[in-house]
Automatic annotation (TrEMBL):
Organism whose genome encodes this protein: Balneicella halophila
Lineage, broadest ranks: Bacteria, Pseudomonadati, Bacteroidota, Bacteroidia, Bacteroidales
GO-annotated biological processes: carotenoid biosynthetic process
Family annotation (InterPro entries): Isoprenoid_synthase_dom_sf, Squ/phyt_synthse, Squalene/phytoene_synthase_CS, Trans_IPPS_bact-type, Trans_IPPS_HH
Organism domain of life: Bacteria
Molecular function via GO: geranylgeranyl diphosphate synthase activity; squalene synthase [NAD(P)H] activity
Keywords: Transferase
Name under which the protein is recorded: Phytoene/squalene synthetase
Length: 280
């Protein structure tokens, strides 16, 4: 086994992680061109690994494990190799697409917040967390989509961040029961004493809708099949958002809202038609 074989199999492992953890994200990613596809798998594998440490490894020393991941990450970025295959694929992608290391640091900083910070009392605090946990991931993906076109990247930075913000806030609403009851976290400043009601959800709705509207402007300017893939993710999350809004607050607090498989299939057909008809 040589280094190239090792790196290639590292990408396959990140692809497997993506497919096992998120069918919707994996489906959208599968629509990309080959090289962009494997790069997005690498980014997802990395962020999923960090997220699993802070959210799922109960009973273990999460702070130690996250610090270890950070040390291994820095080594991989500096030396282009690691015994952690997820980091091998990610470091290779970072190098190929010249992803700014400051984005990666912001992401890891937000993961550290999840180890100790349980409430966000102001929108400034929440925005800072979302920037590190979601917006920078959108910017990493944008680097891959633009593939060296710096002017295009700069023009789409804000829409990419807005899309990451919208996705993250929808995730917060979808996972609100588990976040509050299992992890003891409350992300939205509007929610006090762990209570979701018609009044505070209306404020949250306006914020997410604004993010989606600003993101759509950028999606229409993405190159190649990146436009198709991101549009599919957009319509999926927008559909999930609308379903959450149609759900009574007490039900949102008691069960995880999902999009049915039939609805997902219809979203795929709609997005494919709009892309072929050049409506996006």
């Amino acid at each position: 086994m040589n280094v190239d074989f090792y790196i290639e199999n590292s990408y396959h492992i990140s692809k497997l992680i993506t497919k096992k953890y998120s069918t919707s994200f994996s489906l959208a990613t599968s629509l990309l061109e080959k090289e962009k596809k494997r790069a997005i798998y690498a980014v997802y594998g990395f962020v999923r690994l960090a997220d699993e440490i802070v959210d799922s490894l109960d009973g273990f020393d999460k702070a130690f494990l996250l610090n270890k991941l950070n040390d291994d990450l820095n080594y991989a970025l500096e030396n282009d190799i690691s015994t952690n295959t997820v980091l091998v694929a990610f470091a290779d992608t970072v190098k190929k697409y010249k992803i700014n290391h400051a984005l990666i640091k912001s992401f890891m900083d937000s993961m550290e917040y999840d180890l100790s910070k349980t409430t966000y009392d102001s929108h400034a605090d929440l925005d800072k967390y979302i920037y590190g946990s979601a917006n920078v991931v959108g910017l990493m993906c944008l680097k891959i989509f633009c593939n060296g076109e710096s002017c295009l990247y700069e023009s789409l930075e804000l829409p990419a961040q807005r899309l990451g913000s919208a996705f993250q806030k929808v995730n917060f609403l979808r996972d609100i029961k588990e976040d509050i009851q299992s992890l003891g976290r409350t992300y939205f400043p509007e929610i006090t004493e762990g209570e979701l009601n018609e009044e505070n959800i209306k404020h949250i709705e306006l914020s997410i809708k604004k993010d989606f509207d600003e993101a759509w402007v950028g999606i229409k300017q993405l190159p190649g099949r990146s436009k198709l893939a991101v549009a599919l993710a957009y319509y999926y999350y927008n559909g999930l958002f609308k379903k959450i809004l149609r759900t009574p607050p007490e039900k949102i607090m008691s069960k995880r809202i999902r999009i049915s498989n039939i609805r997902k299939y219809l979203i795929i057909l709609k997005t494919a038609f709009m892309y072929k008809a050049k409506l996006i």
